[in-house]
Amino acid sequence: MSVGLVIVSHSAQLAAGVRELAAQMAPDVRVQPAGGMGNDAIGTDFERVSTALSDADTGSGAVLLYDLGSAQMVAELAVESLGDPGSAVVAEAPLVEGAVAAAVAAQGGADVRAVARAAESAAEAGSAGSAGAVAAAPEPTGQVEEDLQLTNEVGLHARPAALLARSLAGLQAEVEVVLGDKPPVQATSVLGLMGLGAQRGDTVRLRADGPDAREALDRIRALAQRNFDE
Taking all residues of the chain, what is their mean pLDDT, rounded to a whole number? Predict the structure, then answer.
């Protein structure tokens, strides 16, 4: 099973919304909202967070993300109260961006520490330290490049970006995506891909290094040919 996520927020609606977004990116990852207090009043509740943490951890651990300072304290208390506090990590990350990055990393099979690092590096979307940086980059073995025209309705927006990033899980390849004169972004970074603003009809350049470079580009091309399953 994958690492689970807990969304700790002062607002039940906010926690549920972040969960919905993260679940779209990573449908196999258990994401539990823990927002608000009794009667959905604004605040954070230790019992609610502890229950969500228990539900999120299916054996591989859990990462907790929070919105404001007191939510952090409640999240940390919930972790400290576990029989094995090492099985969960409170990530210091932007809530929405961190949840997206963490969900994709968990979907790709990263362990609890790597999922937390992915969340914490979310503010650096598009850099090598962003969501996809959960494994060491392979040694370059010759770059493979090709251009790809986007024909799907929404281009590289949230769901297609997540599908692209997830398609590279397990490959020994470092892949960059370039749009026009914008700086290249890592193909394993959902936030970086979304930041390109690539739309239907745009042509992006794919660059890959590593033993599985050709396989990586083949997977991306196959996704595009299916219009990212829209």
Answer: 89
Strand order in the sheet with 62-66: 31-35, 4-9, 62-66, 88-90
Q: What CATH number was assigned to the domain covering residues 144-229?
A: 3.30.1340.10
CATH number assigned to the domain covering 4-123? 3.40.50.510
d(CA 153, CA 69): 39
Between helix 12-25 and helix 95-107 the angle, nearest 10°, is 40
Whether 157 is a known active-site residue: answer: no
Helical pair 158-167 and 12-25, crossing angle rounded to 10 deg = 50
Residue 92 DSSP label:
-
Q: Which of 3, 9, 10, 122 is catalytic?
A: 10
Entry pTM: 0.73
Q: Which candidate, 105, 132, 116, places its Cα nearest to that of 2?
A: 105
Question: pLDDT (tens digit, 9 = 90+) per residue, 27-43?
Answer: 999 999 999 998 879 99
Interacting residues of 158 by C-beta distance below 8 A, sequence separation 6+: 21, 24, 25, 100, 190, 194
pLDDT in tens, 111-154: 999 999 999 988 665 343 333 434 444 445 568 999 999 999 99
How far is residue 218's CA from residue 214's CA, in Å, rounded to a whole number? 6
